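writing this on my phone so excuse typos. first protein, seq and then structure
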Amino acid sequence: MKNICAILFIFVSNLVVAQTASVLVETESFDEKGGWVVDQQFIPSMGSPYLLAHGMGEPVENAKTTVTFPERGRYWFWVRTKDWVPSRPETPGTFKIIFDEKEYAETFGVNEGWQWIRAGKVRVGRSNLLQIELKDETGFEGRCDAIYFSKDKDDFPPVELEEMTTWRKEKLGIPPPESAGDFDLVVVGGGLAGCGAAVAAARHGLKVALINDRPVLGGNASKEIRVHTEGLEFYTIVQELSTQHYPNGDAGAIAATDTIEMVVRAEKNISVFPNTRAYTVHKEGNKITCVDCFNTHTHKETRFEAPLFVDATGDGWIGYWAGAEVRTGRESRDEFGESLAPEKGDGMTMGNSILWNSVEIETEKPKFNPENKLSVGWQEVPWAMEVAKDYKATRGEWFWEYGLLMNTIYDAEEIRDHIFRAIYGNWYNVKQDPENANLRLKWIAYVAGKRESRRIMGDYILKESDVVNRPDFEDGFVEEVRAIDIHYPRGGKYDFLTEAQFTKIEQYKIPYRCLYSKDIDNLFMAGRCFSATHVGLGSPRVMHTTTQMGVVVGYAAAVCKENNCSPRDVYKYHLDTMRERLDKIKSGAEFEH
């Protein structure tokens, strides 16, 4: 009897295993991305990188991968996706899934909000392999996060972000983070501020890890966003990393990105980690001990340990996770005596922009047929028109900006998508003019350029009076002369356009005390997350100035290592050393290690 019970137990156990066999496929890990792109901007709000069909109105090439299953048989499957214009009957971002070259009947991308949609069943054959393809139907920003397969039809994936993150790791079999190696300085953020910090520290002999969540360096100056650099090129490193003054959105950013990559990667003391996103920090007391990251394509996790860290994320993630004081939005006029601040503080920030442009192709213009306006060459986009209305432009400049009254971190996907609708609706209007028959969309960014979110508080907070009255700070190692430039909604019927209020100033200094956290003993800041008020950020938020910040903290990190001291101690005891060394690279003189 005991033997019979044991055999029955084994049978039932095997049956349970068979029913719960499952596979999670993250689309960003597909073997071939085709024309789809990996979009990792919105992990804080939706939980994961995903594949985006960014075809500017032309369906993109299929993404493909082959998956090995634990056993053959029929699997239920769920698809995590969304309709990015849910308020309209038309759905712009639809796609199909192809299994082993057979197209599944259901259309995806039609559900409101990021959801797991249980679609049906698929059969896995004797080889235990299944080829999966994502087939874009429209070229209008279809998106797919993941596909989950299970033999249990009730094995519904979790919905809450924290639970889903844990579940993903378990399903993917992701081990604990591996050590990335030994470093003197970890710089998180590969924009120009982070690059400046990494290069300055490396040239002073520090071993540097430069972590960037995008495939290329440069941040807003990169070929993914294409903003030209502005501000004072105060140090030679800033000059090396600066761009030409090409029009925003211009292809000149491609060569600029190559130059930035070349300058950074020429430094033997810098290890660059692209497609690597930080997700948490660990502390002992008031010091960060390490930052944990994951690769946005493979999900492999890595731990970065060092005595010193630089938050150059723009959004202030490292300081935020470490518990440093941060500010967002606008201070009240009375808090710092700022005439440009509102009477009452609020959450408004400067917004996010998507740059784009078009090109005239050299072909004979088609004859205009008033009965068929599409003879000039573009399809109707009714889902975009309530945003674009009757606006017409042939390129998008900085003032194509949205999200000032929203949260530029957690609402970032909605902000980006709103501008997409403005662009596509605008383009339909442009193409109704027969004179524009030969115009074609050339390029549209899908990575947003940000201006403002969190600011990490240091021992000093830069404010309007510091920029206007120009105190001669003894630690004023960053200098700028660019006007205070604060953006506001333009008002009127085009909510995707802004205006700027400029306040002319003379050259002023930014104290080094704005570049390290007052709460975390080994954390520097460089970039737009430095210690400032909303008004104080208005002038120095441009890239030459933030690169200066990076250079200063890179040199300060070297002083910290030499003297086994904190960033605050550099201010207290080593300003003369900092001034002497920075004066050399300010003048263009070679610094000798």
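second protein below, same order as before
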Amino acid sequence: MKNKLKKELGLFDVFAISTGAMFSSGFFLLPGIASHYTGASVFLAYILAGVLILPSMFSIAEISTALPRSGGAYFFLDRSLGPLMGTIGGLGTYFALMLKTAFAIIGIGAYATIFWEVPTKIVAVVSTLLFMTLNLVGAKKTSAFQKVFVAFLLVILVTFIVDGVYIICCGDSINEGTLDANFTPFLSEGVEGLFTSAGFVFVSYLGLTQIVSVAEEIKNPERNIPLGMILSLLVTGLIYGLGVFIMVAMIEPETFANELAPAAVAASQMFHWLPDNAGVLLMSIAALAAFASTGNAGLLSASRYPFAMGRDKLLPAMLSKIGGKGTPVTAILFTTAFIILFILLLSEEGIVKLASTFQLLIFIFINFSVIVFRKSKIESYDPGYLSPLYPFMQIIGIVISFILIVYLGWMPILFTAGIVILGFIWYNFHARGKVKREGAIFHWFALLGKYQYDELENELMTILKEKGLRQGDPFDETVIKSKISMFKTPVDLDKVLNKVSDYFAVELGKNKEIIKEKFLHSLHDDAVISLPGVLIFHTTYEDVLHPSMQVIVSRTPISGDIPFKDREVKLPIYICCFLVNTDEKPKQQLRMLSRLVDLLEREDVVEALLEMDSHREIKEYLLQNENFVSVKLLKETSQSAMIGRQLMEVELPEDVLVALIERNNKTFAPNGSTVLQEDDILTILGASGSISKLFKGYMGTEIEKR
């Protein structure tokens, strides 16, 4: 795929993008405004909002580890509920993100006026162009900038909290009477006001959703996405709760309710150990860093929505163009133009409610999408993280989002309805004729006799292949123990199937004829994967203890009828691979099959395998592991000390494994008591550092580093 983004982002990048996108208006602008709805209990509203987002966070984490693709909510909704819902969700989330980003960047201009006499919106426009430049040079560089912002910001906010807690608990500048007055009224509008305030500040946690829009660029997404989101929510929720509590304790209620910079006002009564006004200056700098990180992360994530929708033909294809730095150039420029337009033409009033309302609607759809994907029974839907308490968690998430939308009022609901109508019109007049796919919901309906879209399974299979093996998948072990059969004389498919069935009958303890019939049946059902010169058979059985594989390599084309029903065989066939696993692990079978397909799709794979003379070479080729060496044991060389010794007696670096031994043209997996002999060829796997150490220790002309 030409328009595929690079995987450059690790766990701390995920944490920085999410956390950086949450500490801006939520901490530095919204607390005072939010207190209008609930009074001094506003800090509880922040904590409540963090708890209420949990069901949606779990659902997002599950789908994003199954479908790590740019576009976030758009891609999820498109592949689960169909392209119409994908268009509506994509456009709405895109506009909500841009509005939130524009609001944050305006904050840069507002706080810059504390230091310089400059026009607020001019500063905001210049900042947007700076973030555009950073995004154009690559997500990794953008994230590196983001990590500096977040680290600086966290240090200041933690200092703010520690100093505030000390003053409240041990200081003399605040007494019990002042605290009582500042926390009265506590629930000014009752429980209803608390929920309204929670809905209002819900936007403060939307940085969690920005993670999934860059999921395609995250390394090891099955670990880093859920872990990064959980860490980000814990840190953010703790700082929000304690930080806003300190603001309430420090600021008189009427002043707090009308203050747009409550953190700076609270800081004016703190940091007594610093020079005068240093606390205000410090919090102002922190606010600038927060707004900058939100603006930077917002532009990064928002630009992936038109990129993904352009790639799927829901928006013009030019938006999916990738530049020389591996970034979606057109989508970034397009998004920058919109953000600048919002900065110049719109006021800040109401933006928070509008963004929160539509995002809550998207959360309803995403929670429902998890149910749809699970019910669809698509085998290649293989999330690395499963939401707990399914489906109750998803149902709770739907109900919570609906309740918060109601509390936010009619104006944002009407705006959300307008975006829905816009998405419906755009899809029907622009995209409908160009898009031929449907979502996973059709696979759910298929259980009731309705239609389904088979290409969705192929797309999920492609994603599964790109994600690669999961830790614990025994692919390398299966290759090492596999049976290799090489034919130098002509052979037909029936003879191949007989030989393979003989092997698996012994290996699995099954009836030979049943095994052969199952392989033949998979040919008739087109279940066999056909690559140029290669056929890959795969099946599962009950009571199989471990995966097994056999590879057939024929010097001449394999003859005989290959009865594919609906497609042509990519003749001539020289290689047949057979992969068998337990039916209790269908997802593992798919991952291992995807890995095998990925290896056998390499250029000139048939020519490479036909040139190999030993089973060891073929197995090493299928392992395709950069971290191994091949060592031939010869006398009068540095490795001759191994000859005649049991493997357990040989001193090898940590984290290495002698996986194969080739002896007299036969290959086997050794054990600790295996005695090494002259002319043995050892295939040794291990960590990169250990392999380098081994290579240096046994350097010789017969050692080949891979």
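Residues 68 and 215 are 5 Å apart (CA to CA). thats all i got for now
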